[in-house]
Design brief:
The structure is a homodimer of 347-residue chains.
Chain A lengths: L1 E5 L8 H13 L6 E6 L1 H14 L9 E5 L10 H7 L4 H10 L5 E4 L3 H12 L9 E7 L4 E5 L9 H17 L8 E4 L10 H12 L4 E5 L11 E3 L2 H27 L8 H14 L2 H4 L2 E4 L4 E4 L6 H16 L2 H15 L1 H4 L1
Chain lengths: 347, 347
């Protein structure tokens, strides 16, 4: 299995990506994963030597290959323009490798708009999929909830949300290991009659589908672990996601402040910090190692720009699972089945 | 100043409401507030006697009056039907008291849909206001952010969001005491070009207005205290609000669990719980004492069904501030001014 990794993606590229690839090999040296490390060859060779030395390993050619890319799309580049103009960038080359069947998956911690644009252009949409969606595993009380879309499609139609449900359901089952995932429609009341124009029109479509649709869910149902796949338009999903990140950070800050004020707590502070740090890591979306772009031909995982090498390593393993579980062909099949059975909705 | 209080609203009615009214008088016995306690006269007389005895005070007739209401709209009643059929309910009578100028404000911890329906029917919209909005003071890192709409209008147009901005700005200034409040449009990117159809169309309207418009804000800007008035449609606002409540609860639960696991922390646990309890209270939306319905003729504050007597007391004081600061007439004036200056948008 070949995983194309954008070595130049993320705030701390290329080192985090190179180290991530090395860590992945170190953890599973006998896996069938071959990482294609994409970026300026000379630079990557140096970085690789550095981390092979650090971890005292030598990665065989069957597990790692450097693919030269002379250009870099950075975080501030305009996605569409950059993809058009920087044809020799690691992002464009990575997406092309998958599009031309020279790799099974593409992973990048880089400019997410550019990764999406390149994936749509070079990997292309799966036949019958209207809108690929970015999904995120959000930490919840008892596990994780896949939220989609979280930003690829600000305005949606019912058929889009239905397809998000189908794709998310497959991902939750195959990659997250959730049997018969509960699919919920993000709305403002449990009743079928509550919602906005989009959700009111989407409800009956989801209800009619073969998904394990549990009806409308409210904002609070996500952290409460009442739903496995939360379906919404990319505007709502993006606002939720960023609001959640900000709120989590705010609460940790305020809790630390509140605890510091209590003299009786001082002696225990170092241990409290340790416990909080552990928890924060556990519920940090970064630890999962990326958000899958579902609906394109091939696995494509987009990570946080602030990812560290561990997040990159985790992203590689998540990607490998998605590839080995045939997520893409499962989506292809389910979408085709649905479209055949519902020619009126297929569009 | 007469404040009509729905004595039968909330999960623990009427006691929390009666006790709340008594606590408000106890805290500010020389205020000019007269609470009109609405509900079954006999029951309320008994409750009042109980709490007057408990707090060893006797509230003079100029500060409290019981207004008889034979019916109760409960949490499960269908809002529109209940308001139509239960004309002798405390919610309908409370809204009517304001509508007929026999009270300055109406406060209820009851069925929020019914309160809104009754307010729209009997207090009526302010001239020129398209859609009244429910707003909420959301706790942030350094203070509070007024989010509106949080549920009254699932689908909105740019003129609605603009009016939310005007009304929210006045409320933030007059009641929350924020000078020149920063108004932000909830979206999915800072740039003017990021958003969905609604926000893309709303941005230029807000930019042209005389509001202190700071542009698009993202979900994370609310907890980060980067904005004082966050404007969005009622669908997005409601999802954010409930997601935030759920996430806060989840984090407190997980933090407690994580801390309990560390033996070195055990001795300090009682003090940690105390600190966390204090913080939780500080950031509990309930403590503010209710969400104002802005855009109706008169002050109308809707509280959580789970409110306690302290939340009721706080709601009474918040309401009194809104009345004494002439929030309603300020909104009337600003909306009229805007509509005169922008006849094309006034609709």
């Amino acid at each position: 299995m070949k995983i194309a990794l954008d070595a130049m993606g993320g705030d701390n590229a290329p080192s985090i990506n190179v180290e991530g690839a090395v860590l992945a090999f170190k953890q599973k040296p006998s896996s069938k994963i071959k990482v294609l490390l994409i970026g300026p060859e000379k630079l990557l060779k140096e970085e690789l030597a550095k981390y092979e030395k650090k971890y005292k390993i030598k990665i065989p050619a069957q597990n790692l290959e450097i693919v030269n890319a002379g250009e870099v799309i950075d975080m501030h580049d305009h996605p569409a323009q950059a993809v058009r103009n920087k044809k020799d960038s690691s992002i464009v080359i990575g997406a092309k490798l998958v599009g031309e069947k020279n790799a099974d998956a593409f992973v990048s911690m880089g400019n997410s708009g550019a990764v999406m644009t390149a994936a749509l252009l070079h990997m292309k949409r799966i036949d019958g999929v209207h809108r690929p969606a970015i999904s995120t595993e959000f930490p919840t009380q008892d596990g994780r909830c896949l939220i989609l879309d979280v930003g690829a499609n600000a305005d949606c139609k019912p058929i889009h949300l239905l397809q998000f449900g189908i794709m998310g359901s497959i991902y939750a089952q195959k990659v997250m290991g959730i049997q018969n995932p509960r699919v919920g429609l993000v709305s403002i009341g449990e009743e079928e009659t509550k919602g906005n124009e989009l959700t009111l029109a989407t409800y009956p479509v989801l209800k009619k589908s073969s998904l394990n649709f549990i009806g409308n869910i409210e904002g609070r149902d996500i952290p409460k672990s009442n739903v496995d796949v939360a379906v919404c338009d990319g505007f709502v999903g993006n606002v939720i996601l960023k609001f959640g990140e900000g709120l989590g950070r705010m609460l940790f800050t305020l809790i630390k402040k509140a605890l510091k004020k209590h003299p009786m707590v001082w002696a225990a502070l170092p241990f409290i910090w340790l416990a909080l740090k552990g928890l924060r890591k556990k519920i940090d979306p970064e630890e999962v190692g990326g958000a899958p772009l579902l609906g394109v031909n091939g696995v494509c995982i987009i990570g946080h720009g602030s990812s560290g090498s561990k997040a990159v390593k985790n992203a590689i393993f998540t990607t490998a699972r998605a590839v080995s579980k045939n997520v893409t062909s499962e989506i292809k099949e389910e979408i085709a089945n649905f479209n055949t059975a519902n020619p009126d909705l297929a569009g």
